[in-house]
User: Fold this.
Amino acid sequence: MRKAALFLVIALSIAPAGLADAHSNKSFSDENIKGSYGLLSQGTLFLATTPPFRFL
Amino acid sequence: MADGKGHEQGKATVNAGATVPAFGSSVFTTSLAGTYDVDPDGTGDFTATLTPPGISAASAASNPFDLGGALVIDQKDDREVRLLSIGSNRVLLTGTKRQRTPKGGFSNANLRGDWGFSCQGTLITLAGDPTAVESPLAVVGLITADGKGDFLAKVTANVAGAILQSSFSGNIKVAKNGFITAAATSADPLLAHLRGVMDSTNEFELIPIDPGKIISCTANKQEHKTD
Assistant:
């Protein structure tokens, strides 16, 4: 579980240099996130104790 | 609920596996509020705070659920948003799906039928304060719901290499907003008390709210084809 989360950090932090032409012409804004969403969160909090947890 | 203008609010149920000091419990339901900002390329950032009941967000010192981080929109029709909380005291990945709510809201009838599901997570057994033994767990199973509030479940679980097979029955309710409450009526099932949310009439997500069962489940409706 920890490895999966760390993998996403890497995926988001590597800028797609040289791939600008591959982007679609779509332009996003806050309006693209609107309405009711179901949510599932998983990971680990590093507290005094360090169990994993879930919330939704 | 997101307003399309950078503000979100809602309700969250947490199973933390151990008592979270700011909340005074390991399992709790509380309010969620925050902001988001989407860039033209579909990435962006967000904040989200889960406020302990009866305590203002501002006065909740050292609240571990004062979150923030990066987001990306994916899936067709911008339906799914993935959130990564960036903070030195957590590794937390969140998936969200815009609900496809039937006209009039969700109801028990939306659960009628067979649902294939899988779960993954950790069982935590306290072996003496503060030592805990964590056992990895994965489950596949089938839930059959009658659409009137009762269900049967047949599951196969792998708990740290030990294979368990069981069947159990229970009650399940769906609120108009898609929130699910379920409880097994059989003796000592693996998934005894559950909370969840419906993303659509074909998929829902669940977590147990029993202490020490840090598990997430995703269920999808089986579609039988007849010749």
